[in-house]
Here is the input.
Amino acid sequence: MKLLNNDIQLIRQLQDGDKRALLGLYDKYSGALYGVIFRICSRKDLAEDVLQETFLKVWQKIGQYDADKGRFYTWAYRIAKNTALNAVRKASPLIQTDDLSVYDTKAQETPVDYSEFNGLLKKLEPQHQKAIELVYFKGYTHQQAHKEMGVPFGTFKSYVRQAVGKLREMYSKELLLLLLYLEIFVNG
Amino acid sequence: MDKKNILKNGLLELFLLGELSPEQERTVHEALKKDSDLMVQFRSMEADFERMAFENALKPPATVRNSLEAALTSKEIQTPVRTLNISNAEGSRQKGRFMLAASLAALSALSTVLMYTQWQRAKENLQVLQQQTSGLEQRLTDVEKKYEDTTNKYQKINDPNVTPLLLVGNEKLPQGRATAYVNHTTKEVVVNPQGLPALDKDHTYQMWADVEGKMIDMGLVPTDRDLVALTYIDKAESLNITIEPAGGNDHPTVENLVSNIIL
Here is the structure.
């Protein structure tokens, strides 16, 4: 699938050194990336820092982005996930040397219930939903995630594969319905 | 590494999630470049995951954007500006006019950028929609064709003039079953071969009609289809299935008779 025209232009502008193009990409992708970052960090203040750091890294590394290897979002997602995981590791209470009470107070400020999911993900079987939640939204590796779920590695891989298949099926069906509605709407 | 192994080991998912080693990433990337079908699967997976992420997006506070903008601006290289040599009073008037002109130009530029962005978004949405519509039209045509085929098959075997006949395998093929649907009014015969065990590539099932002691060829019965249309033979006294060399035989090999039914 081709990258969307607007994305291509923004990426080209950014690769040419136009920093303002970064804000265009931010406006489009920050919500989706923040959804992942927040679920990994579980802390508003940390998640906000990670989101900003992610986009600064996008700016610094945009020369390495290769559209043939995948969509821009996939590339930015990997940066966001790794940045968030590193930030969580650094902020871990086990190695925390700062005043923990500061973070405790800030954690209480978190108003969003990030444990709830929306869209078609909610319609997956519980084990499939959990598998996607762990590897995609929590940044677990497959090795960590199968232990977290308490199932054999092979079973967990099957869960992920089945979940990917189900999502494909559901999104295709939804698209077909949307086009039918459009057809009815346009042609009366 | 081939497509089968990549799919079997879930490497596409791991590639998307960034969990592969650099060596494995290179291998998967090479495979994607060579195999367009694999690439289509990966692009679909990417699109699905992206959509899922958008469905579960959280709105970040405006302060993050402001902070990012400030970080970018602080690193901006200042463009050198040529200083004009004019008197203070004149300079102040000139400056006022200049500011007004600059503001108007900025407003105009801003509205142009906004309109251009909107236009690009509309174009981009239209393009995506056109691509999706074209793909779905093709799928719809395929589905309609399949539906039409299925309806035809259903009508052929559910016609009140059709006599269904169960051909049971003999001692050479005890598990074999085939159902023939004979319509003497429209002079049609179709067979459901799904109950016949698959043969090796050098052999095939063939059906014969017995007319006054003479076996007449009705056609081959491949086992990889739901229904097979055969030649209707008038005054047939029995239907017979034999195993013959691939491509069929002119005369039945009687010792390879595996099923028959008297009409």
About this structure: Chain A touches chain B through 60 residues (CB under 8 Å).
